[in-house]
Amino acid sequence: MRAKTSAGLLMYRFKDGALEVFLAHPGGPFFARKDNGHWTIPKGEVHQGEELIAGAIREFAEEVGKPPEGEFIPLGSVRQNRGKTVHAWAFMGEWEPDRVLSTTSFEMEWPPFSGRRQMFPEVDQARFFSIQQARRKIKPAQWPFIERLMGKVADMTPAAPLEPLG
Q: What pLDDT is attached to residue 145?
């Protein structure tokens, strides 16, 4: 089985002089009660023949319902624990969603063995977090994206430069 490739975008902003990042929480019953360590950058699989950045832009718009705008800063890639490679870019943006308007969903049997099929949004919530909050929330394999972003925007930070958390 071939490892999958995903691409996504990490939206960021400065609020009261501090860097904040925008993360998404996966939808569906398996993640309903899971919080720390389960949030992710809005991302998804790249279609065959699709450029990575194009896939990242498409996935962001589909998963959170907001088309991204701005300059995209490359953050490289990470390999997650099941072999999936995730490529990411960052962009500065602003958004305070009342609720996520995920335009994509998935269907599964729920409850298990019930014979009933239900639809669930790919993302059930998304919001900005401080770097300290994001450290707890994000999938551990994706934390390097935030560290790389901090290094790239350190000279833009209105307050003292941010240092990576251990």
A: 98
Q: Given the structure tokens 């996520």, which residue do they identify?
A: 100
**Other CB atoms within 10 Å distance of the CB of residue 158:** 9
Domains and CATH numbers, the chain: 5-153 (3.90.79.10)
What's the pTM value of the predicted model, to 2 decimals? Answer: 0.83
134 with 146: CB under 8 angstroms?
Answer: yes
Is the pLDDT score of 155 beyond 50? yes
Contact 35, 136 (CB under 8 A): no
- State which amino acid sits at residue 24: A
Parallel, antiparallel, or unpaired: how do β-strands 5-15 and 123-130 relate? unpaired
* pLDDT surpassing 80 at residue 159: no
Evaluate whether 24 touches 9 at the Cβ level (below 8 Å): no
